[in-house]
């Protein structure tokens, strides 16, 4: 028994070291911009860079629209499949896995060929159209994570009983989804939203090939031309990621709880 605990602590210590040692080294290196002393100069340079503010703001806005689009597509689809079309679940799951198999660069070149300035739908002929196409592409990349998060949340509630109860009270389909189903899978939606946010913030291929001022190309450009600023950006991105995770944990305490009953 004691031997098992000892090896468990050894494994835990190795895992913690694997995680924290590179992080500590990155923090230490990011503070060596001023020779001979530790300082926050790299962080001041990054945060004061107008390109950082513009690209990060652009990616955050794109992430918000991507999350909204993903929720509008995934929640009704997953709900309807679970309620009325369970036989199509394997097909839908296969479709949602395709973005993991098809590289983003293939999707982008398909967009360029189909929606170029000479096509019947010239999205790429204007900035707004390109932004819309980029959001659609981001929603495609995040589809596997958003769908599985929502589907997992739907498995924890009795979808059929909730739907029948709402219909008896006179609720329509829109009301059922927005006021009955969505609140009960809110944490699952937030989990998918967090994953979507992380994907959008760090995505490089689509934003670069579509020539949009996103955060991913900015990270690559800084990493190729600077020394200490990329380390500072990595720590900032890490802090944002853990901040989002903490926010999800806080919001989960206020979300409605549902009994875990089989559907």
Structural commentary:
The protein is mostly helical and 263 residues long. It has one domain (50-252): Orthogonal Bundle (MetI-like fold). Helices cover 77% and strands 0% of the residues. The protein has helices at 2-30, 41-48, 50-83, 89-101, 104-114, 127-155, 159-168, 173-184, 186-202, 205-209, 215-225, 229-252. The two termini are 40 Å apart. The model is unreliable at 258-263 (pLDDT under 50). The chain crosses the membrane at residues 7-25, 56-79, 91-112, 132-150, 185-210, 230-251. Residues 52-249 form the ABC transmembrane type-1 domain. This is Putative spermidine/putrescine transport system permease protein.
Overview in brief:
It is a multi-pass membrane protein. The chain is built from 12 helices and no strands.
CATH domain topology: MetI-like fold
Q: Give the SSE order as H and E letters.
A: HHHHHHHHHHHH
Helix count, DSSP H or I runs of 4 or more residues: 12
Mean pLDDT: 86
**Main sheet, how many strands, which sense, barrel?**
none
The structural class is: mainly alpha
Question: Can you tell me the residue ranges where pLDDT is under 50 for at least 5 consecutive residues?
Answer: 258-263
| Structural Rg | 22 Å
The total tally of domains equals 1
InterPro entries: MetI-like (IPR000515), MetI-like_sf (IPR035906)
Family: Belongs to the binding-protein-dependent transport system permease family.
GO biological process, one term: transmembrane transport
Subcellular location: Cell inner membrane; Cell membrane
């Amino acid at each position: 028994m004691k031997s098992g605990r000892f090896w468990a602590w050894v494994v835990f210590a190795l895992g913690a070291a694997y995680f924290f040692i590179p992080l500590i080294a990155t923090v230490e290196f990011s503070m060596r911009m001023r020779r001979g002393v530790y300082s926050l100069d790299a962080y001041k340079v990054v945060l004061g860079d107008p390109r950082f503010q513009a690209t990060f703001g652009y990616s955050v806005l794109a992430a918000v629209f991507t999350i909204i689009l993903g929720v509008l597509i995934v929640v009704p689809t997953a709900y309807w499949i679970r309620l009325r079309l369970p036989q199509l679940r394997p097909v839908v799951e296969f479709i949602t896995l395709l973005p993991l198999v098809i590289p983003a660069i293939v999707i982008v070149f398909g967009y360029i060929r189909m929606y170029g300035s000479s096509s019947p739908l010239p999205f790429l002929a204007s900035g707004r159209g390109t932004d819309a196409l980029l959001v659609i592409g981001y929603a495609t990349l995040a589809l596997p994570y958003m769908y599985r998060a929502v589907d997992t949340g739907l498995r924890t509630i009795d979808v059929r009983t909730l739907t029948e109860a709402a219909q008896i009270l006179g609720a329509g389909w829109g009301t059922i989804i927005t006021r009955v189903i969505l609140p009960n899978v809110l944490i699952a939606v937030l989990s998918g939203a967090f994953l979507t946010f992380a994907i959008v913030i760090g995505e490089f291929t689509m934003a670069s090939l579509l020539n949009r001022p996103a955060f991913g190309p900015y990270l690559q450009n800084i990493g190729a031309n600077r020394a200490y600023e990329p380390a500072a950006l990595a720590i900032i991105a890490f802090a944002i990621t853990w901040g989002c995770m903490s926010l999800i944990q806080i919001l989960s305490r206020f979300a409605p709880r549902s009994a875990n009953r089989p559907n």
